[in-house]
Design a protein that fits this description.
Elements lengths: L1 H14 L19 H13 L5 H14 L4 H7 L2 H4 L12 H18 L2 H12 L2 H12 L22 H11 L25 H9 L10 H14 L7 H10 L4
């Protein structure tokens, strides 16, 4: 295991650099400095983060432009007429009908719960486990009447989903280090509480390294892999996301 940790540390240092930002969807929330804009831009970008990374970035930037590059103000204040601008947006199976509900749900969370940070932090303090924060987010998100089709665009860890995109969003918001890639805006949630954003790349490399035995990329696999990564760095286990993803996506491992 010492050899595996050495590999992960080397690859973490190789990929966790400021240059990583430009080619990763995290570049979209990096367009903003206001905390609320970073959160909303990050959440919406993460929501459509599947497929080719450059295509994700292109469409997330398009979405920011549709919101006048003021995502938080748009979420909280856009009129029904202004929301019509979103009818032109589509990314793969994420249609304008899904986007418009996302806007209404996020507005509901901002107005009634104080925002994503406040909602998820409150539950984290009660349970000390971000799994329950993700479950509460899903419950609150779909409190409003919504198209059934939209439910597939927000993972439900209560039903075993791996929640790759939500865990990636949480990594962006919570982690911080000297590289400046992740934002570290949610300082009241420790990096030790994060779960690995599990996708085909991280899962394949983790299995090759003997860090993951479960065959499915589901929540049980997330817990297994995160638990093993915590043995290497209990304070910041998800830093190895850079290593596992980089080895899988860029090196063909």
């Amino acid at each position: 295991m010492a050899d595996i940790q050495k590999i992960l540390e080397e690859k973490y240092n190789e990929y966790n650099t400021f240059d990583f930002i430009e080619s990763d969807p995290i570049c979209v929330p990096h367009m903003f400095t206001k905390k609320e804009n970073v959160e909303i831009a990050g959440f919406l970008t993460a929501a459509i983060s599947w497929g080719l990374r450059q295509t994700i970035i292109k469409n997330a930037i398009k979405l920011m432009l549709l919101m006048d590059n003021e995502p938080y103000d748009f979420i909280t204040n856009a009129s029904e007429k202004e929301l019509l601008k979103l009818e032109s947006f589509v990314y793969r199976t994420f249609k304008s009908i899904d986007l418009q509900f996302f806007i209404h749900a996020l507005r509901h969370i901002c107005i009634h719960f104080g925002g994503l940070h406040e909602l998820m932090t409150k539950v984290y303090f009660q349970k000390s486990d971000l799994k329950y924060s993700l479950m509460e987010l899903h419950r609150v998100f779909f409190q409003l009447p919504h198209p059934v089709r939209t439910e597939k665009h927000l993972a439900n860890v209560g039903k075993g989903a791996s929640a790759k995109r939500l865990n990636m969003f949480l990594r962006w918001m919570v982690r911080t280090d000297t590289s400046g890639v992740d934002f570290g805006l949610w300082t009241d949630i420790p990096a030790s509480a994060l779960y690995i954003p599990l996708d085909v790349h991280t899962g394949r490399v983790a299995r090759d390294l003997g860090l993951l035995r479960r065959g499915q990329n589901d929540w049980k696999a997330v817990e297994e892999l995160t638990g093993n990564l915590r043995k290497f760095d209990p304070d910041d286990p998800v830093k190895y996301d850079f290593a596992l993803f980089g080895m899988g996506a860029f090196e063909g491992n």
